[in-house]
């Protein structure tokens, strides 16, 4: 089936004229029509626009001057502004927003010939670890436990993108990662998720959650595909002052590179209490596979890792409360009816427009930024963040890359969602430190657990050294031989 091809395979097939871009896109729009009603991976489906774009892609392929992603159907997280196509951030408050401009990342993908199938679902304003906070309903993970029909969460916030790629209703998708929102859903859905270095991809035109942490990245079924997408997405943008003016290498060329003599660090602090034995076993399997590939395994310490989650949940809500202040029904956002005063308008608009989790984080963030608490919480968190960054700097003096678990468990069922939000936040315990330090990191699927759910390992690299984590990820992927896929017919994983 055409939907089973990787981006690399499809690109080659298009150039060899084995099938057309229209045929490839039609196969995906048909699959979206069949499966999206159940999985809810897309908020807005743009099949007609995709097929029109596919016709242009075929003409470009005939001319012989076609960029790498020409004719490749992708899903776009509904946080990236897309010109003329509704962009909601999975929130009621901007549920009818149609941008008159294109985000830099999606503009780069379009310049590279990509075709957009639609806008993928997410946790509201990217706030969540299970894709349960969307105003447009939760996303269903295509994977299930053996013999158990329970609906599993796909992870968050980029759960719609992860589910679309895992269910083969997109060849790849964009995600954004603030504290693990690309890597954790990638691990839960058995795909590859790559968070580049902070500043590698432009944030312009991407609806902000926490500006010092948000970073766009690719979600794909293979490391090679992630490399192809990142090459297209990355690059300097004068419209974003945090976007680095550093040349973008050909990331795909790093796949298959020899790992002989490469030093892989194993951080002691990632052996967290309560971790499952299966996660520890998969981590050990990854260590053994990389040792066999010629890597030197080195024990390292990241002593401030234990403060990462607490620090993140001060800084991210603080930035969120500032960024989301603009949605007040006056400047931006759906205005509430029946307000009797300006204060009443603000209260009604924001209460009706924002979901519970977003309101919780705005309140937390406003509190830590308030007079009398700014120094005690926000300023102290920024100092701890510096220490977390310093830990990585010291570790990378000894090693080239770090290997850790991506998440402390496999995906859990919707009805197993913890009532305590702090317990939910623990899903990001292994991904948050790299986000705090701005390091590039990638999750690679390695094995299935005893219940048939995918488990991923995380590679963390030096700033702007995505090439090394792609090289190591490619070798890990090949050695692990992960070929399992969800069985979408039976509703029970194969």
UniProtKB/TrEMBL annotation:
UniProt name for this protein? Glutamyl-tRNA(Gln) amidotransferase subunit A
Is Ion transport set as a keyword in this record?
no
Q: What is its EC number?
A: 6.3.5.7
User: Quick one: which gene encodes this?
Assistant: gatA
The entry's family comment says: Belongs to the amidase family. GatA subfamily.
Q: Which Pfam families match?
A: Amidase (PF01425)
Instruction: Give the record's subunit note.
Output: Heterotrimer of A, B and C subunits.
Species of origin reads: Acetobacter conturbans
- One of the record's GO molecular function terms: glutaminyl-tRNA synthase (glutamine-hydrolyzing) activity
């Amino acid at each position: 089936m055409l939907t089973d091809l990787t981006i690399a395979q499809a690109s080659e097939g298009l150039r060899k004229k084995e099938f057309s871009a229209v045929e490839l896109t039609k196969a995906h729009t048909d699959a979206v029509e069949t499966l999206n009603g159940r999985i809810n991976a897309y908020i807005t489906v743009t099949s007609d626009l995709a097929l029109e774009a596919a016709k242009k892609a075929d003409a470009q392929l005939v001319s012989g001057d076609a960029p790498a992603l020409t004719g490749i159907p992708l899903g776009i997280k509904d946080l990236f502004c897309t010109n003329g196509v509704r962009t909601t951030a999975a929130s009621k408050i901007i549920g009818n927003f149609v941008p008159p401009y294109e985000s830099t990342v999606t503009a780069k993908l379009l310049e590279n010939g990509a075709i957009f199938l639609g806008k993928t679902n997410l946790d509201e304003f990217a706030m969540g670890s299970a894709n349960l906070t969307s105003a447009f309903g939760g996303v269903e993970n295509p994977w299930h436990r053996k013999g158990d029909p329970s609906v599993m969460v796909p992870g968050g916030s980029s759960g719609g993108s992860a589910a679309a790629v895992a269910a083969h209703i997109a060849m790849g998708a964009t995600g954004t990662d603030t504290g693990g929102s690309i890597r954790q859903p990638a691990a839960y859905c058995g795909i590859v998720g790559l968070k580049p270095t902070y500043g590698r991809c432009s944030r312009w035109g991407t609806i902000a959650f926490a500006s010092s942490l948000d970073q766009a990245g690719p979600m794909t079924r293979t490391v090679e595909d992630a490399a192809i997408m990142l090459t297209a997405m990355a690059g300097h943008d004068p419209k974003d002052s945090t976007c680095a003016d550093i040349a973008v290498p050909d990331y795909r060329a790093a796949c298959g590179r020899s790992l002989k003599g490469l030093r892989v660090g194993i951080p002691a602090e990632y052996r967290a209490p309560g971790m499952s034995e299966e996660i520890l076993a998969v981590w050990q399997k990854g260590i053994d596979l990389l040792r066999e590939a010629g890597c030197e395994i080195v024990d390292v310490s990241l002593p401030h890792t234990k403060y990462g989650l607490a620090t993140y949940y001060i800084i991210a809500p603080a930035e969120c409360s500032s960024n989301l202040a603009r949605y007040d029904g006056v400047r931006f956002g759906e205005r509430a009816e029946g307000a009797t005063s300006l204060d009443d308008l603000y209260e009604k608009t924001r209460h009706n427009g924002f979901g519970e989790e977003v309101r919780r984080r705005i309140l937390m963030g406003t509190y830590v930024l308030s007079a009398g608490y700014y120094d005690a919480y926000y300023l102290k968190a920024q100092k701890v963040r510096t220490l977390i960054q310093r830990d990585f700097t010291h570790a990378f003096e000894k090693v080239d890359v770090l290997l850790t678990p991506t998440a402390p468990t496999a995906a859990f069922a919707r009805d197993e969602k913890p009532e305590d939000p702090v317990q939910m936040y623990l899903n990001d315990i292994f991904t948050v430190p790299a986000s705090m330090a701005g390091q590039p990191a990638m999750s690679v699927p390695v094995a299935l657990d005893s219940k048939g759910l995918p488990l991923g390992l995380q590679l963390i690299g030096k700033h702007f050294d995505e090439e090394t984590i792609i090289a190591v990820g490619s070798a890990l992927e090949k050695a692990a031989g992960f070929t399992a896929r969800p069985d979408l017919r039976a509703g029970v994983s194969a």
